């Protein structure tokens, strides 16, 4: 396999012998996953996640203190880019349905069969490699995707693509995050929502175009910064600047 990237993995299982057996199986496979931590319950796993930022968490369902479903619920809310695989000793579709609700990528029955584990990991690998290509273009290491790095990633992306961005939902989907999570992290580190940040970039660029290229029609200015509707562009501009684009240009016409 032509893969040069190794992804971090954490295994969570309260039975030590079963946990070691799973780890042994993972290590026996020629798949680029590196075991960086193991835990016996969800609480310990959450602590490891916050320290190690893994790409994948494999977890049992039934565990003391904090079970597997609580763990994946936490991951879904706080680290939606982290993939997860659920392990269970019995085929319970109710658990499976709940797990899918929180973004679990696979559901394996114990005792874990090597071929089934291999298939599940290969599927996860395809997802991670696809996302890794996007992240690598911004020099962000997927294995060190801390919230502040994610915020910087999004900021760089917005600066580069503000004129063609359709919605934050599209961006979130592109990088494998939820809209809510991406917006929350971005606002935490920049003080504004992604939408307001895009608008600020567009309006600043519009000001420059209006002043420096007086021959450009207002409609064309709007199109160049990402607004296809000239009337909508004018309304957004006035809402942020206080005057319409035409009036703003007139202010600088004789300067």
Layout of secondary structure:
Layout: E1 7-12, H1 16-28, E2 33-39, H2 42-52, E3 56-60, H3 68-78, E4 83-88, H4 93-101, E5 106-109, H5 114-136, H6 147-161, H7 168-175, H8 179-190, H9 194-212, H10 218-224, H11 230-241, H12 245-253
Parallel strand pairs: 1-2, 1-3, 3-4, 4-5
Helix pairs in contact: 2-3, 6-8, 6-9, 9-11, 9-12, 10-11
Folded structure, characterized:
The structure is a single chain. The protein has 255 residues and is α/β, with parallel strands linked by helices. Helix 1 links the parallel strand 1 (7-12) and strand 2. It folds into two domains: 7-136, Response regulator (Rossmann fold); 147-255, Arc Repressor Mutant, subunit A. It is built from twelve helices and five strands. It is elongated and about 80 Å long. It starts with 6 loop residues before the first strand and ends with a helix. Strands 2-1-3-4-5 form a five-stranded parallel beta sheet, sandwiched between helices. The model has no long low-confidence stretch (mean pLDDT 87). The chain has helices at residues 16-28, 42-52, 68-78, 93-101, 114-136, 147-161, 168-175, 179-190, 194-212, 218-224, 230-241, 245-253; strands spanning 7-12, 33-39, 56-60, 83-88, 106-109. Helix 9 (194-212) crosses helix 11 (230-241) and helix 9 (194-212) packs across helix 12 (245-253). Keywords: Cytoplasm, DNA-binding, Phosphoprotein, Transcription, Transcription regulation, Two-component regulatory system. It is found in: Cytoplasm. Residues 148-251 form the HTH araC/xylS-type domain. This is Stage 0 sporulation protein A homolog. Its main location: cytoplasm.
């Amino acid at each position: 396999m032509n893969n040069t990237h190794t992804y971090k993995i954490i295994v969570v299982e309260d039975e030590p012998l079963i946990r070691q057996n799973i780890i042994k199986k993972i290590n026996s496979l020629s798949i680029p996953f590196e075991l960086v931590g193991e835990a016996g319950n969800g609480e310990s796993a959450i602590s490891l996640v916050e320290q190690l930022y893994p790409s994948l968490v494999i977890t049992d369902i039934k565990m003391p203190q904090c079970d597997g479903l609580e763990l994946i619920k936490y991951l879904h809310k706080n680290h939606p880019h982290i993939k997860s695989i659920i392990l269970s000793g019995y085929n319970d579709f109710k658990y499976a349905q709940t797990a899918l609700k929180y973004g679990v990528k696979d559901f394996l029955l114990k005792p874990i069969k090597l071929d089934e584990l291999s298939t599940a990991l290969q599927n996860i690998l395809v997802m991670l490699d696809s996302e890794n290509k996007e992240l690598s273009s911004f020099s962000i290491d997927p294995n060190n995707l801390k919230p502040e790095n994610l915020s910087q990633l999004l900021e760089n992306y917005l600066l580069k693509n503000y004129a063609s961005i359709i919605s934050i939902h599209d961006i979130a989907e592109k990088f494998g995050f939820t809209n809510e999570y991406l917006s929350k992290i971005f606002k935490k580190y920049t003080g504004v929502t992604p939408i307001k940040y895009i608008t600020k970039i567009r309006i600043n660029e519009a000001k420059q175009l209006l002043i420096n290229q007086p021959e450009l029609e207002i409609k064309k200015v709007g199109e160049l910064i990402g607004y296809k509707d000239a009337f909508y562009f004018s309304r957004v501009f006035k809402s942020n600047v206080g005057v319409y684009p035409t009036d703003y240009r007139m202010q600088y016409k004789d300067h």
